[in-house]
């Protein structure tokens, strides 16, 4: 893990920025021939080159990535793997990775992530039709912060907070959802009996980088209230095992005890937003205001 006293120069910051941007793009839908060729022909070599400077220790997952990519016969096969794992219902793995933390879409963690984006001048991109916690959006945001720190040093306008923000974002968010994401990809590969699963070594590569780069900054760590700790525990419980009929009965009982309405519980979860007049937000992507 990096220490605050470690020397950091613009070249290393740029390479960190490039590393996280490369991984961000790797988890986007491979819809074109150019995207497929970039992954098969360039991805492993690019990551290996970056690792020579960044020293993440990626040799083993890079070997696995090369082996997995060599099994792909063409763009259609990669798109099929991606679609079966991330897109086709029922999705085996959720690219909106904070679902595993909150047990719901657009939960409290996503709100915290949006606030982090906004604080550093990042707004929503109209062309990206997904939620703020999409894995590629988060990694591109980290890339943006490292790039911003590098530019500050190059222009004699140091922006040390940008580097600290990248480290803290990795610690506060990516470090938390990454184990769920990695294990989900491994499980999906076995369940779907995929001949090639390049997304597992990519997740392992990300895990090794985050283990080195994630760093909490105490001034940004807010003590949680007892009620928030209880909510976090409930989210983790429901995310891991799902909500049972007994859970729903208990929720309804507690709402009634506090004089609150339970009418919304009678509406199917997938229809609840529409019934309440709500719609999903467009996600942010790193773009300066």
What does this structure look like?
The chain has 289 residues and is mostly helical. It has one domain (10-288): TorD-like, CATH 1.10.3480.10. 63% of the residues lie in helices and 3% in strands. The protein contains twelve helices and two strands, in the order ααααααβααααααβ. It has a two-stranded antiparallel sheet with strand order 1-2. Residues 1-7 and 278-289 have low confidence and may be disordered.
Which helices and strands appear, and what pairs or packs with what?
Elements: H1 10-26, H2 33-54, H3 59-70, H4 75-87, H5 99-102, H6 108-119, E1 122-124, H7 135-154, H8 160-191, H9 199-213, H10 226-241, H11 245-257, H12 269-275, E2 284-288
Antiparallel strand pairs: 1-2
Helix pairs in contact: 1-2, 1-7, 2-3, 3-9, 7-8, 8-9
Key terms:
disordered C terminus, 12 helices, mainly alpha, two-stranded antiparallel ribbon, 2 strands, globular, 289 residues
Q: Short description, anyone?
A:
The chain has 289 residues and is an all-alpha fold. It contains twelve helices and two strands, in the order H-H-H-H-H-H-E-H-H-H-H-H-H-E.
CA distance, first residue to last residue: 32 Å
**What would you call the structural class?**
mainly alpha
Return the CATH topology.
TorD-like
Mean pLDDT across the residues is 83
Task: Give the beta-strand count.
Answer: 2
CATH class: Mainly Alpha
CATH superfamily: TorD-like
Stretches where pLDDT is under 50 for at least 5 consecutive residues are 1-7, 278-289
What is the spatial order of strands in the main beta sheet?
Answer: 1-2
Task: Count up the domains.
Answer: 1
Give the amount of beta strand, in percent: under 5%
User: Which CATH architecture is right?
Assistant: Orthogonal Bundle
* H/E element order: HHHHHHEHHHHHHE
Number of helices: 12
